[in-house]
Write a structure and sequence with these properties.
Order of helices and strands: HHHEEHH
Radius of gyration: 20 Å
Largest sheet: 2 strands, antiparallel
Number of helices: 5
Oligomer: single chain
Distance between the termini: 45 Å
Helix content: 25-40%
Structural class: alpha+beta
Number of strands: 2
Length: about 110
C-alpha cells in the first residue's frame, strides 16, 4: 500500500519554472505528442487519448545534472508514467460485476 506521504507530497518547484515548461513543450512536440512506451509496444497514445507527461528517464532527484537534457526526457501517457513510478493501482480498472440473471428473475417475480 502507498503511504499518504508519497501521494500528498508537494511538487518539486523545478516543475513550475518557465524553463521547464518550455522544455516540456519542446519534448512533447519532438515526440509528436505520443507516449513513447505505447509506441514501443506498437500502440499509439496521443494527447487526445490521455494526459501526456514528460518523464525524466534517469530520475531528477538522482541526476539533477540531466534535468534539461533532451536525451533524458521522454513523453509518456499518465498510465505508463504511473507504472514506471510504481503508482499504478489495479483496483481502479476493475471491471464491474455483471448482474446475475437469477437476481433479475427473482426481482420481477418470474
Amino acid at each position: 500500500m502507498v503511504s499518504m506521504a508519497k501521494t500528498t507530497k508537494k511538487a518539486n518547484p523545478f516543475y513550475l519554472t518557465k524553463e521547464w515548461r518550455q522544455k516540456r513543450q519542446e519534448i512533447l512536440e519532438r515526440d509528436h505528442y505520443e507516449c513513447q512506451e505505447c509506441k514501443r509496444q506498437g500502440k499509439v497514445t496521443t494527447r487526445h487519448d490521455q494526459v501526456l507527461e514528460v518523464d525524466h528517464i534517469l530520475e531528477l532527484q538522482d541526476r539533477p545534472d540531466l534535468a534539461m537534457e533532451d536525451d533524458n526526457l521522454q513523453t509518456l501517457c499518465k498510465r505508463h508514467h504511473n507504472i514506471k513510478h510504481g503508482r499504478y493501482f489495479k483496483f481502479r480498472n476493475k471491471p464491474k460485476k455483471p448482474i446475475s440473471p437469477l437476481v433479475n428473475e427473482e426481482w420481477f417475480g418470474n
